[in-house]
Design goal:
By secondary structure, this protein is α+β, with helices and mostly antiparallel strands. The protein contains 11 helices and 5 strands. Strands 1-5-4-3-2 form a 5-stranded antiparallel β-sheet, with helices on one face. The relative contact order is 0.13.
Length: about 270
């Protein structure tokens, strides 16, 4: 039916700490592309060349996924990507069995049962965000991502099923690799070296030297990323963890991880 949204209810393995996951996305939502409002996560997507919007919210023990502007034939692909993005199939019991063997982690686990590793809708978009986040705050990286989306992202009109929603501010698709491979990034506030790294990554994706198919060996993705000047071990591990859902990925130099393990540790930034 034209203008109607498709709705699917997604089961998940319990426990599931939805507020923590939603808070993570809220703090990193690219303006114009992603938004957290009214207890739901919204983002623009492109599936088989067609733009649309997905809406995710937890309700009565399941995640309600509403797809606006999405063709019925693309339903399976969108559901699969959404499940991975929200880490709904994480083997929670197995994870808890391992983590509770460590005294420090067991204590944290009691307060955060059901916490997930947030995935990513798009591997290239995540990699750009990771590059933007090198040596700057999450808030600064989010601001830069919004500026890049506003300048280089394709404008998007809200699907009819979201029309009249004054609280929804989505208006762009995240820029495609082809667009950023030749972007100048002038007057955005991005340092020259970081801009060059994003162009190199985009060009590698366009050429096929880097791809984010989750059927590949994680070591292959990490190696292909680290072959690009400006991409270090932290960025490669972070992308493997979230884009490929690789359970053994470990960005060991992450400042947040180091601070969580030892709150009194003095970190060199």
């Amino acid at each position: 039916e034209p203008g109607a949204a498709l709705t699917v209810h997604l089961n998940y393995r319990r426990p599931f700490e939805w507020p923590a996951l939603l808070g993570f996305f809220a703090g990193r939502a690219t303006p114009g592309v992603e938004q957290v409002t009214g207890g739901g996560y919204y983002r623009t997507i492109r599936v088989n060349g067609r733009p649309g919007v997905i809406e995710c919210r937890e309700s009565k023990g399941r995640v309600r996924l509403r797809m606006h502007g999405i063709a019925t034939k693309d339903l399976f692909a969108v559901v699969r990507s959404a499940r991975e993005m929200l880490d709904l199939d994480a083997p929670i019991d197995d994870i808890h069995d391992v983590l509770r063997k460590d005294r420090h982690l067991a204590r944290l686990l009691r307060d955060r049962r059901g916490v997930r590793v947030p995935g990513a809708w798009d591997g290239f978009e995540l990699t750009v965000r990771a590059i933007l986040g090198q040596q700057v705050s999450v808030q600064a990286a989010t601001t830069l991502a919004g500026r890049i989306a506003a300048r280089y992202g394709e404008p998007l009109a809200l699907p009819a099923s979201l029309s009249g929603r004054g609280d929804i501010t989505l208006e762009r698709l995240f820029p495609a690799p082809e667009k950023l491979a030749r972007a100048r990034f002038n007057r955005i506030g991005l340092v020259t070296s970081r801009a060059a790294t994003i162009r190199r990554v985009a060009a590698a994706v366009v050429s096929g030297d880097v791809h984010f198919d989750d059927s590949q060996e994680p070591d292959k993705l990490r190696a292909s990323l680290m072959a690009i000047r400006g991409i270090g071990e932290w960025t490669a591990e972070y992308v493997a963890m979230r884009a490929l859902k690789y359970p053994d990925a470990f960005p060991a130099s992450d400042l947040g991880l180091l601070k969580a393990v030892d709150p009194n540790r003095k970190l060199n930034t």
